[in-house]
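[job 0412] stage=fold_complex status=start
inputs:
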Amino acid sequence: MTTRTAEKVLSFEEALAGFDPTMGLEVHVELNTVSKMFCGCATGFGAEPNTQVCPVCLGLPGAMPVVNEKAVESAIRIGLALNCRIASWCRFARKNYFYPDMPKNFQTSQYDEPIAFDGWMDVEVDGETVRVEIERAHMEEDTGKSLHVGGATGRIHGADHSLVDYNRAGIPLIEIVTKTIPGTREKAPLVAKAYVAQLRDLLLALGVSDVRMEQGSLRCDVNLSLAPAGSGQLGTRTETKNVNSLRSVERAVRYEIARQAALLQSGVPIVQETRHWHEDTGVTTSGREKSDAEDYRYFPEPDLVPVAPSTEWVDELRASLPEPPRERLARLQREWGFSDLEMRDTVGAGALVLVEETVAAGAAPGAARKWWLSELARRANERGAEVADLGVTPTDVARVQALVDEGRINDKLARQVFDGLLAGEGTPDEVVEGRGLAVVSDEGALSAAVDRAIADNPAVADKIRDGKVAAAGALIGAVMKELGGKADAGQVRELILAKLI
Amino acid sequence: MTELTRRTAAELAEALASGETTSVELTQSHLDRIADVDAAVHAFLHVDAEGALAAARASDERRASGPPASTLDGVPIAVKDVLATRGLPTTCGSRILEGWVPPYDATVVARLRAAGLPILGKTNMDEFAMGSSTEHSAYGPTHNPWDLDRIPGGSGGGSAAAVAAFEAPLAMGTDTGGSIRQPAAVTGTVGAKPTYGGVSRYGLVALANSLDQAGPVTRTVLDAALLHEVVGGHDLMDSTSIDQPLPAVVAAARQGATGDLSGMRIGVVTELTGEGYQPGVQQRFDESVQLLVDAGAEVVEVSCPTFVHALATYYLILPAEASSNLARFDAMRYGLRVLPEGIEAPSAEDVMRASRDRGFGDEVKRRIILGTYALSSGYYDAYYGQAQKVRTLVSRDFAAAFERVDVLLSPTAPTTAFRLGEKLDDPVAMYLNDLATIPANLAGVPGISVPSGLADEDGLPTGVQVLAPAMADDRVYRVGAALETLLTRRWGGPLLARAPELAPALRGASA
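[job 0412] stage=fold_complex status=done
writing structure:
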């Protein structure tokens, strides 16, 4: 266990009473190109360590990079979808610093000549639109991944030795940087979350990334500063890294506001530094101090020629962009017949694409929304995970609903099917089979159970015979109990009424 | 047998084609020569007799059963130790890469192998190509075959000395600020730096990426052209390589060898002659100019005023790029690893620091510090940024000059070979050796150095360099070959015939 001194924090409300937050968000997106940014190596996730490497991505002496055209295409499409201007000529630059998981001890990135710049994205929060200005989107390569062995926490501190997997080294990344987002006040945490959620949906629609936050293919850094309320000033910012779920984005913003406010209120200045977000404890802790010590000595990468996308190519890519987010939302709401509130909840839960895919897999929109927003959202919340990351797919949900529609299971059994899916027991059909969840549709067995319930509850049966149909509930309950819930309540009710009236 | 090693690569190719000799025979004769004289010369860091003979056998079998893989199929070659060779150690003359065996071939090496040239071994060089004397090699200096107490030039002193000492008919060099041309000048050999992007840099361990260029090191201009054709041309693995057909360098060399330069306009660069040039060097240069006039060339004086800033510019750009290139040598993945003393559980950073401290020589450290400083925030504009602007001006001077003339001419190096150790403690004096060669690297234009004779005062070789516009490499071969023909005629044979015999008795005498 690492020992962390819990820092003093103000309540969120107190913090906002005294201070205005200003945010900036940096999102790193791993592209889903077949090969790496500067070499032909494969990019698949989860391969055996150091099996997707070559002289180039290992930075062996003499090896030279060659730009992946497909990655440039994806970068331009992202830039266009974020309403950015696309550079007609730009270069890669070397960002120099030493780190064992970086093969060349410099990262090939872009510095003052990003491929895309000056864009925006409109973010919906509680029915209100906040325009997030995009400063730039630039191309770079990912680093390798260090694995610290021997310590209790998997962190470098206390570890016995470290191993490095270079499979990730050289995977194309797009870094998307917002301008500072001022004036969001108490909505700051939600705006941050909504921005990342919408960006994720946009990237998914573009088909340029898997955007799996839990696998690190979408990573977020949160820059945050406070200034005295109403002062219109900019305070000293911290950069919080490792914010790797939508929920964490919201929590990290909230936490930093509360933490910085407590410091400022007691007269302690904020240190410009990198901080780390801890998903488990919900706090940030100090990393390295930034400031002057960090000099990356950027200069243009002499091994690469400039990237100069032609106007024709950019226009072609612009024409092939998917539907813009707002138009898409309006269309889906129309098609699904959702109310404004239902639509907002769906977006807010990060379930828009999930619902869309579930509908595409055959479920009714209402049913798709019901499962994702109630049942699955609750379970995600219990686990502190994103609903998209539960491991339940839209196809699964559509199949569960189909089983309900076919009368093979009821809603209550469906919940158990989800339990089974989450426990990794296979497909919905396999879970139903494995757990014996199918409702009793055998007329004889059902009829016998109903008969027994009537015989066991003569008083209730009499009431029903007297026309008090509402009393049937007690008998239905008895039948369900006997059959372990594995019956269709409507069917049971019909049987009871048929026998007694 | 000795006689084979005295022949040019073009003659050896003919002898192979006619069946007069075999690749095994001539590869073995060069290996023998290496065994005889390299203890004294120390041109090689690694000799691969087994690999060379295997390639020679394969070449002989190929010739026996069908067409050869190239004009030079079966002619052995030495390769500068800065080019990655699969299965063969590649040290760049540095401790930090001691024992590193690359898992891949540089593109030029792959092309040599594909063309059937047996690789005799890897040649000595200043550490990471930083130097003009080969004294900065971590494995000891190479000695100039003309006078073993003198430097063979650098950084490619090993390749030049190997060719001058008849240990190899051909060698590959690399030229960042003159590392092919200056060693050629001081060893009486030929060295060509192709147009930047004309020969792939993939697998060339970068000193300064925007300046580096690999090229031929030979005894004749025609040999250089033949080798240039084998290794040159576009390569998908090097983004900076030029996607155009290679200039017809072999044809140009043959045309030049007629000695006729009618219609050729030649410019003598004002800034690269006179003051600072050894009298004997200047004298041989002036005679060469006169010979070219006699051969029908029109010779004028051309001023390139910014060339006087080339050296300063170069010593900002080169260290900046080098400091970043050399960052990868951190003991994490390959090469030397030093565990720091007195630290119980050293961190990765501790190991990096100790390994780099022990693994790099002083000159390398000096340039890493210079480059790191030049790129630092707050200094970037004043140093690296400014240097890039001057670089543009140097290119403009070239462009303006090439509007008036077809090629430019200057002495290759300001002096003949100096004594080992003479300039080792004076980096600036060492840097001045590249005064005349650096502008071509800054502008990316091609150049060749050909022998111009022996300086009267010390009897040591001098060289003349010919420069041409980018992708007009053929012009330097034409003018170089013409000068070679005219001078050889005057001397009554090749200059190297006048080099002292290296006694085989020296074998094992020193290292």
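[job 0412] summary: Chain A has a mean pLDDT of 90.
[job 0412] exit 0
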